[in-house]
Every structure is written in structure tokens, then in C-alpha cells.
Amino acid sequence: MLICYWSLVTAPPAVVPTRPSTLTTSGSLPASHQRHATAYAALTVALAYAIADRTRPPAHKALLVFSIATGYGAVMEFGQVFQPDRVASLVDMVANTIGSAVALSWYHLEQRAQFIPVGREKRA
Predict the structure, then answer these.
(1) Is 22 exposed, middle or buried (0-12, 13-18, 19+ CB in 10 A)?
(2) Cα separation of 26 and 80, whole Å?
(3) pTM above threshold 0.85
(4) Quick check: 73 and 93 in contact, CB under 8 A?
(5) Extents of the domains making up the chain
(6) Which of 27, 32, 99, 124 could form a disulfide with 41 if both were Cys (CB 3.0 to 4.6 A apart)?
């Protein structure tokens, strides 16, 4: 819901960079693309958590979650075409996809990891 609100309802910042798809002088992505990636990473983790107890193979769940998150991102960008204060951007869709892919890869790594509490020793 928040992604939809921020994508379609709120007005963008008044200052628009002249070349938003370029790297900043520090070599990192612009803050707007970082926010896109972070928001879609959070969406992907929430979706992955929502279907974690399904009996489908992990690859099917991964494809489903990735498809929903990236599809939602594409729909939100398309919806911005009809908003006078918004600009649809292919670069934003790529940032959404990257955030989703990174989060999804962590979700599957977490399923294979064994977590051991720090600072607790087993006593015989």
C-alpha cells in the first residue's frame, strides 16, 4: 500500500536531477534509485514471508514472489504515466527489479543457513 501511495498519490520532490540515471560523484546510485530498490526488497521479503509455509518447491515460490514484486513495480511505473506530477521511468523499474532480486536471493540463502546464537555456549 505504501509503495502505491508513494508512486501514484504523493507529488515528487520539486528538484529533479537533470540526469537521474547516472552515477553520483561518489560512484553510488542516486538516492531515488536506492529508495526504489529498498522498497521493492522489502516488498519481496514480505511476499516471501507470506508464502513461506506453502508446500511448493522453493524455485516455484521464488518465481512467484519475483513475478509479483516486479509486476507490481511495472504497474506502478505505468500508472505514473497518467499522473501529471509523476514521470514513469525504465531506470526505476530496473532498480525495483534489482531490489527484488537481491532480497529474493537473501531469502533463499537464509533457508539454507544455520543460525547459532552468539555468546551462548553449550555446557556438557
Answers:
(1) exposed
(2) 29
(3) no
(4) yes
(5) 30-112
(6) 99
